[in-house]
Amino acid sequence: MPRETRESAALFERARAVTPGGVNSPVRAFNAVGGTPRFIASARGAWLTDVDGHEYVDLICSWGPMLLGHAHPEVEAAVREAIARGTSYGTPTRPEVELAEEIVARTPVERVRFVSSGTEATMSAIRLARGFTGRDLVVKFAGCYHGHVDALLASAGSGLATFAVPGTPGVPASSTELTLVLPYNDRAAVEKVFAEHGDRIACLVTEASPGNMGVVPPEPGFNRFLAETCRQHGALFVSDEVMTGFRVSREGQWGLDGKTEGWRPDLVTFGKVMGGGFPAAAFGGRADVMHQLAPEGPVYQAGTLSGNPIATTAGLTTLRLATDAVYAHLHHVADTIKAATSEALGAAGVPHVVQATGTMFSVFFTDAGPDGAVRDFDDAQRTDSAAYAAFFHAMLEAGVHLPPSAYEAWFVSAAHDDRAVQTVLDALPAAARAAAAA
Ligand code: PMP
To answer: Does the annotation mark 145 as catalytic?
Structure first.
């Protein structure tokens, strides 16, 4: 007997009558996997409870933010105390200073400015890069997502290194014709585009380790190569750590490459974990670049709820609790789930590739590319979406909520304890067989 979804189905029907697709962010609608999205009524630790009363081990973690798990008692207490003091003043506050100090202490940025979403962070970073350099062109990689910023909702035109075409109706060609889209991990393409347009490029923006086409880590030295190429041409290197920041390691992806290799990005964007489950995001970087921002400099940027005291309190409390022990636990949980998933899929004869950066990982339902890895968007797109859909629904039935899309990272938290992990392990063999039969 499949799990009863009557309440979710009823809410979904009501939702669709008043909201496009019934959801406030497209991937939640289950379009990629089919079926009714589960409406979640509450969450605690590693578990979600839906409106029909079913429990699921959560491998979405709000698409990254819930590093400590849901309703962490100390985060909850800090937020309750903060709310009792009022929720927004439109003035500077203490928590935003302390969160900025924590971010500056952990990451390569010297100054940081808060915003409310990752989209705003990358949009603002690009404006600042253009304002600082006096140049207009932006370079990005196919398969990297930086939020729904017009200039970055671009797909590659035909051929390599052509100016981009809008990836969605509603974005004027004039917004994306200043964007160049390259294949990820492709040094030759980067060299070519800088050789041709280097003196017009304001910045190159990349996910620090892409997670939005599944996890496709930078090949060793790739980020350093990007940083050096930008420097040689007077362009800024913008590292988008919205997903990886404070997630893949204490210091984000930079802690896994830049710090050991001795280089820094010029600008970095953050979101997700640093908001502790509230709408908070940030961009930061070199002091001389950040000083170009209003009110110190001429580049305008602002926000009514930017640095909101509740969101920054949640983020600050989360980061203070995100100790080395937390990251060690996340590694352990991720490694256990990765190994068991690979074993189950292998036993069922399902082609797959597991890739990770730090504690963030994903499973591609595809054969490895020519070099044994998924290294760019073309490789990632060979994923067998039907096999993933069958796998996803079998896992859901067994009480494990994966991301409802084959192109997403799987997220774990400090609250994923033995019981939660065992629930995942128990569900895998049958789900792998369902994928094999799809
Ligand atoms: N950059 C990256 C790397 C992201 O993963 C996301 C969101 N998934 C964003 C930017 C946009 O963040 P938001 O959804 O908060 O606007």
So the answer is: yes
Mind listing the pLDDT tens digit for each residue in 198-251?
Answer: 999 999 999 999 999 999 999 999 999 999 999 999 999 999 999 999 999 999
- Looking at the domain assignment, is residue 177 inside a domain? yes
- 58 and 29 assigned to the same domain: yes
Of 287, 321, 355, the one marking the end of a domain is 321
What phi-psi label fits residue 64: left (phi over 0), alpha (psi between -120 and 50 degrees) or beta?
left
Dihedral in degrees, nearest 10, Cα atoms 362, 367, 371, 377: -60
Averaged confidence pLDDT in the chain:
96
Cβ burial, residue 284 (10 Å; 0-12/13-18/19+)? buried
Same domain, 217 and 303: yes
Domain boundary among 304, 321, 338: 321
CA diameter of the chain: 63
- Sign of torsion over alpha carbons 201, 202, 204, 205: negative
Instruction: Indicate if 258 and 154 belong to the same structural domain.
Output: yes
Position 370 scores a pLDDT of 65
Same domain for 236 and 382? no
Q: Helix (H) and strand (E) counts for the chain? A: 14, 15
Distance from C-alpha of 18 to C-alpha of 84, rounded to nearest angstrom:
33
Ligand 1 touching residue 389 (CB < 6 A): no
Give the pLDDT confidence of 94-142 residue by residue, as tens digits: 999 999 999 999 999 999 999 999 999 999 999 999 999 999 999 999 9
Decide whether any atom of ligand 1 lies within 6 Å of the 122 Cβ.
Answer: yes
Residue 1 lies inside a defined structural domain of this protein: no
Name the residue among 299, 280, 279 with its Cα closest to residue 289.
299
Please tell me whether residues 428 and 343 are part of one structural domain. yes
109 and 255: one domain? yes
- Indicate whether 420 and 295 sit together in one domain: no
Assess whether 259 carries a catalytic annotation: no
Distance from C-alpha of 421 to C-alpha of 428, rounded to nearest angstrom:
11
Q: Which two tokens stand for residue 57?
A: 């081990």
Is this model's pTM higher than 0.90 or not? yes
Top mutation candidate among 145, 247, 269 for ligand 1, by most atoms within 8 Å of CB = 145
Kindly give the distance from the C-alpha atom of residue 281 to the centroid of ligand 1, in angstroms, as a whole number.
Answer: 9
Give the ipTM. Answer: 0.99
Q: 288 is in which domain, residue-wise?
A: 73-321
CATH number of the domain that 281 lies in?
Answer: 3.40.640.10
* 49 strand-pairing partners: 42, 55
